[in-house]
């Protein structure tokens, strides 16, 4: 069964430093996608970055990069040069490709609360 | 529209009352997903639609929950006889067939409806 594990309930980082949020996953399907979402205290879900299981390179989007280690089944999010506005909950999620076609639901981890200190 | 719209923003119901939530997906998106987020953490998948057809309903508590996506109308999620444990934020997300690859297809989330059952 699909599973996403985020082992860090809370993390803190000093402003302008980099931080890594851990995510490991479990799936038997060779075709899947991994997503990171940010949820600030206001509650909305903001898409950050995506990594496909067949992508050859690690995904990057501005200050966000994904450290994808397929053999270890890990997809850690790296935020460089942290800003105060990065303080939020961060969710890792996975979706498997449906054999019969179409797009499956997202399976979410429990989330990591990041606090950026000035 | 360019954003997923959800109404109402907040909904308060007495235990045993009915609750109805609405979601307007992004125009052109053919998939709609409903998730329940309890206590700002755990996301639980409820149901998904491909256009007006139920795609996956494995997460729905079928005794009291029902959902529809009819043409030219917002999608709806209805809870008959609400219980205290139904208190949560209900997110709707929509997506379209992606061009980047089989597992891509980002899900765009609405702002959520906070349901409080007293």
The helix content of chain A, as a percent range, equals under 10%
**In angstroms, what separates the terminal alpha carbons of chain A?**
41 Å
What is the beta-strand fraction of chain A?
A: over 45%
Largest sheet of chain B: 7 strands, mixed
Mean of pLDDT of chain B: 90
Summarize model confidence as the mean pLDDT of chain A.
92
The helix-and-strand class of chain B reads mainly beta
**Regions of chain B with pLDDT < 50 over 5+ consecutive residues?**
none
Biggest interface and which pair forms it?
Answer: A-B, 30 and 30 residues
Q: Could you tell me the strand content of chain B as a percent range?
A: over 45%
Rough shape of chain A? globular
Instruction: Outline the biggest β-sheet of chain A.
Output: 6 strands, mixed
- C-alpha Rg of chain B (nearest Å): 14 Å
β-strand number of chain A:
12
Architecture overview:
The complex is a heterodimer of chains A (118) and B (118). Chain A is mainly β. Chain A is 0% helix and 51% strand. Chain A has no helices and twelve strands. In chain A, the strands form three sheets. In chain A, strands 2, 5, 6, 10, 11 and 12 form a six-stranded mixed sheet that branches. In chain A, a hairpin with a 2-residue loop joins strand 7 and strand 8. Chain A starts with a strand and ends with a strand. The relative contact order of chain A is 0.33. Chain B is mainly beta and 118 residues long. In chain B, the strands form two sheets. In chain B, strands 2, 4, 5, 6, 9, 10 and 11 form a seven-stranded mixed sheet that branches. Chain B has a four-stranded antiparallel sheet with strand order 1-3-8-7, with no helix packed on it. In chain B, a hairpin with a 6-residue loop joins strand 7 and strand 8. Chain B starts with a strand and ends with a strand. In chain B, 35% of the residues are buried. The chains are: A mainly beta (118), B mainly beta (118). The interface between A and B is medium-sized, with 30 and 30 residues.
């Amino acid at each position: 069964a699909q599973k996403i594990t985020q082992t860090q309930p809370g993390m803190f980082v000093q402003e302008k430093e980099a931080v890594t949020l851990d995510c490991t996953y479990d799936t038997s399907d060779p075709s899947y996608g991994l997503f990171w979402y940010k949820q600030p205290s206001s509650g909305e879900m903001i898409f950050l970055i995506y990594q496909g299981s067949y992508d050859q390179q690690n995904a990057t989007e501005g200050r966000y990069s994904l450290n994808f280690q397929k053999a270890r089944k890990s997809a850690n999010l790296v935020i460089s040069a942290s800003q105060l506005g990065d303080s939020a909950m961060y969710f890792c999620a996975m979706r498997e490709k449906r054999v019969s076609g179409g797009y499956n639901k997202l399976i979410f981890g429990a989330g990591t609360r990041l606090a950026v200190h000035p | 529209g360019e954003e997923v719209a959800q109404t109402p923003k907040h909904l308060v119901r007495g235990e045993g009352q009915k609750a109805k939530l609405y979601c307007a997906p992004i125009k052109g998106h053919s998939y709609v997903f409903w998730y329940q987020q309890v206590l700002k953490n755990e996301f639980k998948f409820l149901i998904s639609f491909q256009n007006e057809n139920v795609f996956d309903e494995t997460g729905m508590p079928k005794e009291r929950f029902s959902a529809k996506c009819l043409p030219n109308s917002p999608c709806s999620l209805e809870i008959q006889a609400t219980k205290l444990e139904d208190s949560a934020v209900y997110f709707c997300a929509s997506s379209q067939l992606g061009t980047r690859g089989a597992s891509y297809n980002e899900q765009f989330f609405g702002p959520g409806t906070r349901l409080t059952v007293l």
